[in-house]
């Protein structure tokens, strides 16, 4: 076997040393992917207990039940971007070192806190372990595929950040803001409908009952789902980074408006039917209907931005 033939048959040397513009050996991708898959499987095995805990926690959580769907959404975006991936792979030592160090650092802080006897609440522990797992997985991806590959997949990879549950120290202020703004919007809607009411913090005082916007009714889960939908849809159908950003940001006030309108409808029902209206299916199952309604203006905005981009391309 001559020297040239030997180099061609070595996937590692080909991935690192192929001259720019030359065609990559089709055997490189399967080899690199197989090696990354083995590394990812080893990481998943090492983090098996925290990942199982995360799945069980999110499945029954009122706020984080969207987490199990995030990896599948990210994987689908990666699949759609396959045609844009670089033809060659290189070793991304810098990215691997930074991400690996950050992941191991989070694990060190987590275990140090546990050994010190501190009691971490559930979401804090899951935030540490999930973020550490994702960073170590990202380090492996940098090592096997390189920086150019990861730049191409920057958005699908960053999308996985939604797998990390917010600890209570961050979640509580967000929930309070959502409760306050939703109650205020419902109060405004009631005034526009000429229904007598008084807003007391997060409580709407009606003529025959009082309706408090509890954390469970803050709209955090549906609002996050709306943000995920806007990020996913914007990446699929929009090309401009600014349009994607504005489309994602518009989901925030839209989610608050959706929840405020939902509370307004429930308040109107209570004003006419009494407190027993809260036992209706509109209260227990109506969230899905109001979420579907909120998708209508979101998709209309997406269509408008998509057509605007097409007109710019024509000019």
Task: Note the main attributes of this structure.
315 residues; mainly alpha; three-stranded antiparallel beta sheet; 3% strand; disordered N terminus
Summarize the structure.
By secondary structure, the protein is mainly alpha-helical.
3D structure, described in words:
The protein has 14 helices and three strands. β1 (198-200) and β2 (203-205) form a beta hairpin. Strands 1-2-3 form a three-stranded antiparallel beta sheet, with helices on one face. The protein is 71% helix and 3% strand. With 315 residues, the chain is mainly α. α11 (220-237) runs antiparallel to α12 and α12 packs antiparallel against α14.
Helical residue percent band: over 70%
**How would you sum up the major sheet?**
3 strands, antiparallel
Secondary structural class: mainly alpha
How many E strands?
3
Strand order of the largest sheet: 1-2-3
Order of helices and strands: HHHHHHHHHHEEEHHHH
Radius of gyration: 25 Å
Low-confidence segments: 1-27
Euclidean distance between termini CA atoms: 57 Å
Q: How large a portion of the residues is in β-strands, by DSSP E? A: under 5%
List the helices and strands and how they pair.
Blueprint: H1 3-8, H2 11-17, H3 28-46, H4 48-59, H5 70-80, H6 93-115, H7 122-145, H8 147-152, H9 154-159, H10 168-192, E1 198-200, E2 203-205, E3 210-212, H11 220-237, H12 241-273, H13 281-284, H14 286-314
């Amino acid at each position: 076997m001559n020297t040239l033939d030997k180099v061609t048959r070595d996937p590692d040397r080909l991935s690192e040393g192929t001259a720019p513009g030359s065609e990559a050996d089709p055997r490189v991708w399967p080899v690199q992917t197989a090696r990354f898959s083995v590394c990812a499987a080893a990481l998943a095995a090492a983090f098996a207990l925290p990942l199982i805990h995360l799945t069980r926690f999110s499945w029954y959580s009122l706020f984080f039940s969207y987490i199990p769907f995030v990896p599948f959404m990210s994987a689908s975006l990666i699949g759609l971007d396959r045609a844009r991936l670089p033809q060659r792979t290189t070793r991304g030592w810098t990215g691997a070192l930074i991400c690996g160090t950050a992941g191991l650092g989070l694990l060190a802080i987590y275990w140090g806190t546990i050994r010190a006897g501190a009691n971490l609440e559930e979401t804090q522990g899951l935030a540490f372990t999930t973020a550490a797992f994702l960073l170590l997985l990202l380090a492996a991806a940098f090592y096997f595929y390189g920086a150019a590959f990861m730049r191409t997949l920057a958005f699908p990879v960053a999308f996985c950040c939604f797998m990390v549950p917010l600890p209570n120290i961050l979640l509580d202020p967000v929930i309070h803001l959502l409760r306050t703004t939703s109650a205020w919007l419902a109060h405004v809607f009631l005034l526009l409908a000429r229904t007598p009411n008084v807003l007391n913090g997060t409580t709407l005082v009606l003529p025959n009952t009082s309706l408090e916007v509890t954390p469970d009714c803050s709209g955090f889960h549906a609002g996050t789902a709306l943000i995920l939908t806007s990020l996913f849809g914007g990446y699929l159908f929009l090309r401009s980074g600014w349009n994607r950003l504005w489309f994602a940001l518009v989901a925030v006030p839209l989610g608050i408006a959706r929840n405020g309108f939902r509370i307004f409808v429930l308040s109107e029902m209570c004003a006419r039917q009494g407190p027993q209206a809260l036992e209706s299916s509109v209260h227990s199952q109506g969230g899905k209907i109001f979420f579907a309604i909120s998708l209508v203006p979101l998709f209309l905005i997406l269509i408008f931005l998509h057509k605007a981009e097409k007109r710019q391309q024509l000019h």
